[in-house]
Design goal:
The protein is built from 17 helices and ten strands. It is an alpha/beta fold. It folds into two domains: 186 residues, Class I glutamine amidotransferase (GATase) domain (Rossmann fold); 126 residues, Arc Repressor Mutant, subunit A, CATH 1.10.10. Strands 5-6-10-9 form a four-stranded mixed β-sheet, with helices on both faces. A two-stranded parallel sheet has the order 1-4. Strands 2-3 form a two-stranded antiparallel ribbon. Helix 7 runs antiparallel to helix 8, helix 9 runs antiparallel to helix 10 and helix 11 packs across helix 12. The two termini are 44 Å apart. The relative contact order is 0.09.
């Protein structure tokens, strides 16, 4: 595991907890994964949480080792920008990649792999915020903006933070089989396969990055009033713009059409209602602007890969979902 100052601590410990947790479900014997944490210097390495991790080896010391590596993992986090300027880090990752059976990045660790050309011509994922940056800076990389994680040959990349645990679980399944991976998932209170992609998390976050005051105000209004008739005509009038100008500026600011954002915001509002209330599915569909449960079902399938009722069952338990269901959705 490669780390560096101001990496995200979960990018490091999340995947490692999943991988090393396999030992609890395997027959007695050697550890399933022997972990070495490598950083600029041996010893404490700061993370964005304020906690420090203890690196086993420095990049310089690890460079002297010619032994094969089973899995090379590169963590991500706020320190990635500085890490991209660290010649010693880049040299180690380049050398280690040449002796690794497979190469993995967590979150913005994909930027480091891309900087070294390891992702050229390959599909890859990273944190949704960094996807457009990865596309612009490394045009040879085929960025999958919605994937939780991507495998392209012997290189695996994950989206943000906790998705590194999803990727690690897939590695456990590859190495030890589905039954062991399922037990590890249950132990860590994880889905064996998480529903949906990165888009399910993005409505409020997209709103935070808009700089145009008119568009920013519109985004806030959509999030606060998902049940309103949010047509382009109505939204453009509220923003004081022509429909054509509004649609263009909205797309420039959010990289989404108004209709796509409205649906994302409505799915998000419906998710919260399904998770936190016992209101029936049909009523939630009306409250969040879908007009009926069938339209909401189709939107949930597009965004999350499950129906609204199935989503509620996953987050509230099947017994509770059965009690509050008011008909098929």
């Amino acid at each position: 595991m490669v780390t560096y100052p101001e990496a995200h601590i979960l990018d490091v410990v999340g995947p490692l907890e999943v991988l090393t947790g396999a030992k609890f479900f395997l027959p007695e014997g050697p550890e399933p994964y022997a972990v070495t944490l490598v950083a600029p210097h041996e010893g404490p390495v700061s993370t964005t949480s304020g906690l420090s991790l203890m690196a086993h080896r420095s990049f310089a010391a690890a460079m002297a080792d010619a032994d094969p590596i089973d899995t090379l993992i590169v963590s991500g986090g706020h320190g990635t920008t500085a890490a991209l300027e660290d010649a010693e880090l880049l040299a180690f990752v380049r050398q280690a990649a040449g002796r690794a059976r497979r190469i993995v990045s967590i979150c913005t660790g994909a930027m480091i792999l891309a900087e070294l050309g390891l992702l050229d011509g390959r599909r890859a994922s990273t944190h949704w915020w960094w996807c457009p940056i990865l596309e612009r800076r490394y045009p040879k990389v085929l960025v999958d903006r919605d994937a939780i994680f991507v495998r392209d040959g012997d290189i695996w990349t994950s989206a943000g933070v906790t998705s590194g645990m999803d990727l690690a679980l897939a590695l456990v399944e590859m190495d030890f089989g589905h039954a062991i991976a399922l037990q590890v998932a249950r132990y860590n209170v994880m889905y064996m396969m998480r529903p949906g992609g990165q888009s399910q998390f993005s409505a409020h976050l997209v709103a935070q990055r808009a700089e145009d005051p008119a568009i920013n105000a519109t985004l806030d209004f959509i999030l606060g009033n998902p049940g309103d008739p949010l047509t382009v005509t109505a939204l453009a009038a509220r923003a004081g713009l022509s429909e054509r100008t509004f649609a263009r500026r909205f797309k420039d600011e959010t990289e989404m059409t108004p209709a796509a954002y409205v649906e994302t915001a409505r799915v998000q509002a419906a998710r919260v209602a399904l998770e936190t209330t016992t209101t029936g599915v049909e009523q939630i569909a009306l409250q969040t602007g879908f007009q009926n449960a069938e339209r909401m079902r189709r939107a949930f399938q597009r965004h999350l890969g499950v129906s609204a009722t199935d989503y509620r069952a996953r987050f509230r338990g099947s017994e509770a979902a059965a009690l509050i269901r008011d008909g098929p959705d």
